[in-house]
Design a protein that fits this description.
Layout: E1 5-8, E2 11-14, E3 18-19, E4 22-23, H1 31-38, H2 44-95, E5 99-107, E6 113-121, H3 130-135, E7 140-146, E8 155-156, E9 180-182, E10 187-190, E11 199-204, E12 209-214, E13 221-227, E14 232-235
Antiparallel strand pairs: 1-2, 3-4, 5-6, 5-10, 6-7, 8-11, 9-11, 11-12, 12-13, 13-14
Length: 236
Amino acid sequence: MAPLTARDPRGVVELDGMEAGGFGPPPCFRRDCRRARRKGGFTLLELLVATTILALLATLAVPPLRQQIAQHRVRLAAAEVASTLWTARSSAVRYGVAVAVRFDVRESEGGSTVTAFSLYADGDGDGVRTADLSTGADPRIGRPARLLHVGSGVRFGFPEDLEPREFTGSGRLDRLDDPLRFGRSDIASFSPAGTASPGTAFLTDGYHLFAVRVYNRTGKIQILRYVRDRQHWKGL
């Protein structure tokens, strides 16, 4: 028997799946209908698989992200130290007198480390000297200021598991117990001509290592990062 037909305003339409004497399977149970429905969204299994993959990728990305954040903290501390040295140099040039920076690391009442710095001016014409600081011959300029990024997990020093190479790469750095090295003292001094007492301040969080170098003839201040896997210093 021929399939049943129905008439609509546009013409004759065959009722697919319906024959005289009975009804065919409901359209939603047909294979092509199920395929059409599947195209409209995702199944629960597909969502679970996608969520698992995303969680795995996020887990793999966490360690590198933490390392980048930790390295950025040490870099901020190095930039803060460099800014302090630039302040001393510009003050010496501006006022026509030798100016020096002295860093002071102390333990606070809560057990945390507080790092501050002070600026000193040459008061007797022989440069800023450690002996003159204690006698007051070289007066302090203003009040001590605290370094915000040094002390909160970042300190002056070296990683305990690292023996870094020298800046020239020829050998290893010695005196790893002395992270502040400016001439024969821990005072970074600048002359009215812009020259400086050469030296370096090393900063670390226990893993990453940065250095703030001061060059004598030019008074240039440079920040460098130690690349562990290649064992060399890289300027920023």
